[in-house]
Structure formats: structure tokens, C-alpha cells
Recover the amino acids of this structure.
């Protein structure tokens, strides 16, 4: 199929994974990335001699797509797992353990929930009413806050579910889709009157020894895009950066892309195109020829955030923290009410022993700031954001020394919001795209934000393109 040319718009993990599959199937592939670098939200750089990711730092090891891709790249032996995944929640002014038996914050073990002291006595007393309340009507999609709150009370939403979801989506439980952000729980809840019983069923059905939860690469997950790009090049593909696609138009025998500045545009013809960019630019590209998809994509909102990485001397901690980090519920960190601003803290050097082994005297810490609707927090200077992160660690860990080095990474519009109705919106996008031969979409805006989900999205897009190219050339699957 070397006579066929496919263009992938977007050099993030989804675009690169789709391009690699196409290139390995003999398609001539060109990846066009508008920014100066590939990788999207995957990026790593050194701080105080330690390679610490600036974006996503790990991938789920219990979904196969990410591990399979690393294996296909010949790097499965390089994968490393966390030394600890135990983490806490800052609730009612103190760090407390995340209760065992929960699924994304939805509890199944009332004794463990009580022992954690995450909820107030009144909030804890409200939870078991779920066992006797009548069924909560649910037709179509509802928000996480509406359904979980109706079953278990508002404190479970505010102090358990929302902080865990916030670590993934940086969203708000009153807006996020129950069906799309908690799919396993939502599905189980359809066959159980009690939400507690539904989650107990999920826990009982889970493997007894599922293995490590997360995995990464020794020099950071930000190295994965470069491994993919090298593999694409080896298969004869091309990866270009600084190549912004301004227009995508359907032609009689394929597609034409307009690349670069208006004063000196470049036109590139393709037999098939995978659009693997965020929802807003995807909407602009699809609007001329697939307006129904463009309209739905234009309704997907995004949250912005910043990750402040601090490298301390190990002696800066009066006592080394326990666990991999902690989450801060919105009700604790709401700055409008005198809160902290930091929503999550990861003790990277403790979570990943290979980082500690590399620089035993350094403790690298990542602090996350910013949720949907909190763009005003990110208007502060790097120095102010760093000071906020330092104040957080002083309050919870007793750190009084200045960090040896710091870094602020801003992800403007980085996280798509899976709000109520998201699945229907995505279905409409895919239905519209299905009517455009040789076109596919992929990325975090559709079926999941994690690395494995993005890779699955990429594979589906690449297979759609391959089917089209093979049918055009009269080649069987």
C-alpha cells in the first residue's frame, strides 16, 4: 500500500500511535504537528538531575494498550512500576488515608470509610441510607454529583469522588457525566438499587491479584513520543513539527490540507486523514465538509492547569512523607474561601524508586493547580504559583527550606471535560465522520484521557483508514 498516502494531523500520543500503525501496514504516512515539539501532554525534563515528567507521568497497567505498544517498540523490559500507590486526602484540615474498597471515590466498605475519618460524623451517617432508599430514577445521562449525591450524600461527592475525578479531568462533579467518567460504576448501578452494593459487585468481580496499577519508562513517560517517532521514521514515515494545518477540504479522490502561514501556504494531498488534535482545532478543520461533527466538537469544553515541580534536598523534610502523595478536595482548596489552591501533590521520588536511586539526596515533588473554571488562578506569575506550592508543602509536610530548583509547566486548555451527554456527543461526531470516506478522528476528546484510552482511539482510527485504503485498492484485509 505504499502508493497510498495518509496524513495524521497532530503529533500527540494518539496521532503518533495511529501513524505508527499505518506506517507498519505499508502506508506512506506524514504526521503534521503545529507546535515545535511532538508529544502533546507528554513531556519530560530534568530538575536537579532527575528526569521528572511535566505532563502525564504514568499509564494504567491494567489496560493492555499502553503496555502492548511499549512491548511492540521493544521496550517492555524497561517498564518500571511505582514503589507505592497508597495516597491520602486532605480533609477537614488533616491528611487522611483514601479509604480502601472504593472505586473512584465511591465507597463499598463502610467500616473502612469510617476508619478513614475523611467524612464528618454527619456525612458518614448519611452514607448507609443508600442501602434503604428507593431506586434513584435515571433515564439518560446525569451528573456525577446528582447521582452519587442522591445515593450517598454530598460529602462523599465533595471529599472523595470529586478529588479523585479532579486528578483525571480537573473538572467539577456537578458537570461531569456519570456515564462517561465512571462507566463501570454507572453500568453496575443500573442493576443495583444500592450504589454501595453496585460497587461491592465491581470489587468482588475484580481479579484478586491484578498486578501493578501504573507503569512508566525510566527516563519518563515523555520519552514515549520520541520512541514512536523513531519507529515511524524507520517504517518510512515522516514526522514534521511547526506544521500547522489551517484547512482541510475534501477532494474527489481524497483530501487536501493547507499547511503553514497564509502568506506562503503549502498544499498537501492525501488519500486519507486522521484528525488527532483537541476538539476546538478539530472542529475548525471539519467545519467545511463535516459540519455536524464540527458542531458537536465545538461543544466540548477544556480545563487548564499548571504543574509546579519542586526539587528539595531530602533533609528539607523533617520526616519523609508516607505514600505517593495526596489529593485536596475543592472544598479545602477553594481560594475564595481562604483555601490553598493546590489540588494534588505527588511525591515523585518516593512514588518512583528509580528516581530516588538516581539522586538519593533529592526529593522531587509535583503540585497541581487549576480546575475547570479556575483560570484566574493560572493568571498568577510562575513565582506566585511556586510560592503557593511551597506553602502547601510547608503546611502539610513541615518543609521550611527553599527548593534547590523549581519548574512551572502550564497546560492551557489541556484537559477535555466529559460533561453530561458526552457519550451522545461523541456518537454524533463519529456518525458524521463515518459519512466522510477516508477520514477518522482520535484523541483524548472522545473515549478516555489516559494513555491506553488514547492509544485505543488511535488504533480504531487507523483501522478505519486502512479499511478505506484497502477497499479503494481492491486489497483484502
Amino acid at each position: 500500500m505504499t502508493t497510498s498516502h495518509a496524513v495524521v494531523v497532530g503529533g500527540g500520543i494518539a496521532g503518533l500511535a495511529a501513524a505508527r500503525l499505518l506506517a507498519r501496514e505499508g502506508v506512506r504516512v506524514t504526521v503534521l504537528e503545529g507546535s515545535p515539539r511532538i508529544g502533546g501532554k507528554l513531556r519530560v525534563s530534568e530538575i536537579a538531575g532527575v528526569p521528572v515528567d511535566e505532563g502525564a507521568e504514568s499509564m494504567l497497567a491494567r489496560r493492555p494498550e499502553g503496555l502492548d505498544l511499549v512491548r511492540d517498540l521493544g521496550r517492555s523490559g524497561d517498564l518500571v512500576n511505582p514503589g507505592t500507590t497508597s495516597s491520602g486526602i486532605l480533609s477537614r484540615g488533616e491528611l487522611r488515608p483514601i479509604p480502601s474498597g472504593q472505586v473512584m471515590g465511591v465507597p463499598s466498605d463502610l467500616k473502612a470509610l469510617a476508619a478513614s475519618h475523611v467524612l464528618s460524623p454527619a456525612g458518614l451517617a448519611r452514607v448507609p441510607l443508600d442501602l434503604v432508599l428507593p431506586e434513584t430514577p435515571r433515564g439518560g445521562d446525569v451528573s456525577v454529583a446528582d447521582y452519587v449525591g442522591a445515593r450517598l450524600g454530598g460529602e462523599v461527592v465533595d471529599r472523595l469522588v470529586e478529588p479523585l475525578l479532579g486528578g483525571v479531568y480537573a473538572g467539577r462533579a456537578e458537570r461531569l457525566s456519570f456515564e462517561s467518567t465512571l462507566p463501570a460504576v454507572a453500568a453496575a448501578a443500573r442493576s443495583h438499587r444500592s450504589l454501595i452494593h453496585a460497587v461491592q459487585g465491581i470489587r468482588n468481580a475484580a481479579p484478586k491479584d491484578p498486578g501493578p496499577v501504573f507503569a512508566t519508562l525510566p527516563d519518563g513517560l515523555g520519552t514515549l513520543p520520541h520512541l514512536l517517532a523513531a519507529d515511524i521514521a524507520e517504517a518510512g514515515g515522516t514526522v514534521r513539527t511547526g506544521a500547522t494545518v489551517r484547512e482541510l477540504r475534501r477532494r474527489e479522490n481524497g483530501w487536501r490540507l493547507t499547511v503553514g502561514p497564509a502568506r506562503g501556504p503549502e498544499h498537501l494531498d492525501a488519500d486519507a486523514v486522521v484528525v488527532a488534535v483537541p476538539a476546538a482545532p478539530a472542529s475548525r478543520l471539519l467545519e467545511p465538509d463535516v459540519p455536524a461533527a464540527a458542531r458537536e466538537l465545538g461543544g466540548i469544553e477544556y480545563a487548564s492547569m499548571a504543574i509546579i515541580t519542586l526539587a528539595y534536598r531530602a533533609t528539607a523534610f523533617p520526616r519523609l512523607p508516607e505514600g505517593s502523595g495526596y489529593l485536596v478536595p475543592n472544598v479545602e482548596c477553594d481560594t475564595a474561601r481562604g483555601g490553598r489552591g493546590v489540588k494534588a501533590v505527588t511525591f515523585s521520588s518516593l512514588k518512583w524508586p528509580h528516581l530516588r536511586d538516581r539522586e538519593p539526596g533529592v526529593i522531587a515533588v509535583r503540585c497541581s493547580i487549576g480546575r475547570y473554571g479556575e483560570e484566574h488562578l493560572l493568571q498568577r506569575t510562575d513565582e506566585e504559583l511556586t510560592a503557593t506550592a511551597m506553602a502547601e508543602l510547608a503546611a502539610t509536610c513541615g518543609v521550611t527550606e527553599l527548593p534547590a530548583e523549581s519548574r512551572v509547566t502550564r497546560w492551557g486548555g489541556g484537559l477535555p471535560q466529559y460533561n453530561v451527554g458526552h457519550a451522545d456527543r461523541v456518537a454524533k461526531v463519529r456518525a458524521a465522520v463515518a459519512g466522510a470516506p477516508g477520514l477518522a478522528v482520535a484523541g483524548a476528546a472522545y473515549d478516555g484521557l489516559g494513555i491506553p484510552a488514547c492509544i485505543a482511539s488511535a488504533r480504531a482510527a487507523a483501522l478505519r483508514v486502512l479499511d478505506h485504503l484497502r477497499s479503494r485498492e481492491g486489497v483484502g484485509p
About this structure: The first strand starts at residue 5 and ends at 9. The chain has a mean pLDDT of 94. The first helix runs from residue 13 to 24. The chain has 18 helices and 19 strands.
